[in-house]
Amino acid sequence: MRLRKKQIKLAKKNPHNVITSHYEKGKLVKTTDTKKEAVNHPSHYGGKDNPYEAIKIIEYSGANFLVGNTLKYLLRAGKKYTVDKNSEVHALEDLKKARWYLDREISNIEGK
Predict the structure, then answer these.
(1) Cα–Cα distance, 50 to 27 (Å, whole number)
(2) How far is CA 93 from CA 44, 51, 70, 74, in A?
(3) Distance of alpha carbon 65 from its chain centroid, rounded?
(4) Are 68 and 50 in contact (CB under 8 A)?
């Protein structure tokens, strides 16, 4: 609860901050990203210094658009809105988005 109050104060001080969280060595870490980091390397996608940042994995794999988005939503599921009381709802949305992109890719392959 203390962390939530601190995050609200930080957000009021600088509305360009985005409150996010991610897992580091198996522990949940809540962070406040500046607007620049929220665009370039948001923590819910792994962050700049993480070798497993979603964009790095997708680019390395050579995945197409649909498979890339599937990976993106799987990798961020449950991480973007963890300070929100509806975090499980948001995680479920991400998983459904991943499934939608995967189903579309499967349909495209089966239709060939």
Answers:
(1) 15
(2) 15, 25, 12, 10
(3) 17
(4) no
Measure the CA–CA gap between 55 and 61, rounded to whole angstroms. 10
Both structure tokens of 85: 């009381």
pLDDT at 91 over 60: yes
The position carrying tokens 């189903």 is 103
- Residue 33, phi then psi, degrees to nearest 5: -85, 145
CA proximity to 43, closest of 69, 24, 70 = 24
Are 46 and 80 a contacting pair, CB within 8 Å?
no
The secondary structure of residue 41, as a DSSP letter, is S
Here the tokens at position 46 are: 């792994």
Per the prediction, the chain carries an average pLDDT of 74
pLDDT digits (tens, 9 = 90+) for 34-75: 555 666 666 666 666 777 788 888 999 999 999 999 999 998
Six-digit token pair at 84? 């929100």
Q: 83: closest CA among 37, 31, 15?
A: 31
